[in-house]
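Fold this: Multicopper oxidase
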Amino acid sequence: MLVSIELWARPGIVSLPGGFPAVIWGLAASPTAAPQVPGPVIEATVGDMVEITLHNMLNEPVSLTFPGQEIAPEPVLDAGGRLVSLTRFAAPGRSVVYSFPAYRPGTFRYESGTSPERQVQMGLYGALIVRPAGWDDPASSNYYTAYGADTGSGYDVEAVILLSEFDRAAHEVIATGAVYNPLNYAPQYWLVNGRPFPDCVAPPDRSAQPLTSRVPVLAGQRVLLRLINAGFLAHTLAFQEGPARVVAEDGRPRRSPLLDATYDKNAITLGAGQSADLVFTPPEGEHYLYDRDLLHLVNTDDYPGGMMALVDVRPVFPVTPPQAPSNLTATAALPGQVELTWINNAADEDGFVLERRTGAGPFLRVTTLMVGATAYTDTHVEANTTYTYRVLAFNLAGTSAYSNEAVVTTLP
């Protein structure tokens, strides 16, 4: 079967904690869709032929590489014999096509092969999942397995957990076309599926950061976590209540008919570019997966934040979204801050998403708040600036409508 995918590389805007906009170079699944970070998850089944067309809407050459796949590299050199790109690229305004067979199941990544020290940091990366033949056939022994029968990789619920870092200063330099020195790499944000905590546990949306890292699970279900480190640094992920069974590493199962080399871990370290597949059956409750480096659990200097995911195990799921908040008010009582309050009309919310826009600009996420929140102090504001706020509630069934909008002008 031919799996044909088109991706558009172009600039976009993401929201960092506090409602700060930042330029990214993302990948979109259609000409009109927002470019996103990470890129769309590419899925195939063993036996498929994968064909990916990359359309370059950026101002510099762009390519994609697919580590672990049977696709021959075609490095590009300049006239002086220096490496320009790890593989064929699309010049600005042009397209390039990559084809490869999906020959073995596994958890992989794809990423830019042209100036990757710039373009991967800017957001040109994503997950590639190859499933075994028969994975969706109840009559097959490969049904709902990550690597096939007798690999210990059976599951009921799966989730991709894609790790990365975000250096805001690097993005500002690269977006202007200035020379970027990767030796100055100093990330301030630590992302899971393109968002830092607590925003990463908010529901999926249509922004440039559409993916959540909240994994809904019914009690008794087996969970498969597909961990991928797309960042430049190593990360050690710990389980709040471990252990989990490591069934594969770097797209290679650790169990075969001759040897079972799977093992239990309470924490697992992924080097840059590595992946691992973990299976476990968590008890009812909220189970956090988090980076053990405390410096990776902040957003700049705000704690808690950073690299966290949530496995949310319940006996039942809600069937309707929560009611919308109301009576949102915004008051500039002191310089450098806005006091926000609202009425919580829901009894079954999992949290709230607070958004803000500056002047007539787009709404951007300021923060994600937990159950029962009815107030927030926004300290990430400029003097003498008009802001508009809105808030919504969410649970596992979806999101509410937005509250009323509240407009405020900050003090000098």
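The CA atoms of residues 248 and 277 lie 5 Å apart. The first strand starts at residue 2 and ends at 16.
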